[in-house]
What does this fold into?
Amino acid sequence: MSQGRFYTRSDQSTTDSLPVHGVPEDILDLSKVKAHVERAIQRNRFTGSADPLEYLRERGCLRNVEGERFATVAAVLCFGCQPQHFFPRAGVDIGHYRGTLPVSHEVIHLEKVGGTLFDQLARIEAYLWTNTHHGMTLVPGKFERVEVHSYPQIAIRELCVNMLAHRDYMIHASAGRVMLFKNRIEWASPGGLPPGVTIDNILNEQHSRNPLVLDLLYDAGFVEAFGQGLDTVFAVMEEEGLPTPTLRDTGSSFIVTAFGRMEDAFAQDLYAQLSDIQQKIIDFIRTRGSVSPQEIRDLLPDRSRRSVQRDTSDLVEARLIEANGEGRALRYRIPLYP
It folds into this structure.
């Protein structure tokens, strides 16, 4: 495994725009570039040529050095056939723990995530979303079901993007790190904050360590043009009544910690919010498998026909039961995937 070597940096160069020694353009997967450009054009995020090589040149992903054309760091990270062949630590370590401490006897899952930055984003977001809690509740005062999650999905995505987009890729000794605990998720970016950016001014400063990577992420729809990722995370967490994320700069790493809804927030059964009549209808359907409207009316002989219809209609609208068939063939049952 060879480690990528950069050509000399100029005063105007950022790490991600440097050509990588010994990495010609044919190390890039042009099929990935082509699909990326097509999606960017469809999203109105890119208006240039749809030709993959033209796009790479326009975005600064290819650089000429002494008559030869080489891929830049951003190009290798985003479109390389094997990015970790050149940058072994340009990946992310996932650690998932049962409790609140990163100790070995609490380990649920450990994984090294590689591939392009787009591959990494997809895998990390999917793992976190799959392995955090999801439920549902009813809107107070309305018979309307809404989903409830441990963490807002947009916050998970933005913090994964932030970790990969702003890390220091000159640091070859450390990978990014995501740690999922019972009560929180931590994202750690190697390199700490860039010069001029502090914990106090981070929401106001727009300094980017990897502007070319950000351009590619923007074209892919992962970031906005003016670096609003952390602002979005803070706003969404506040809207959902969750604690404000904490930020730490250790000098060698920048760490963001988000605290989600605890497991006991999902312990309240959705059905406990229903009326006695509605619970009775659901229990009846659950025990029978499926029932007709007449069987529900027979279950509730003292309730008016119109009230029973309203009860069942409300349950269908909330997707707690579903109706199948029409007329005399109409049956109610519990959805397989409520």
The CA atoms of residues 94 and 307 lie 52 Å apart. The chain is about 35% helix and 20% strand.
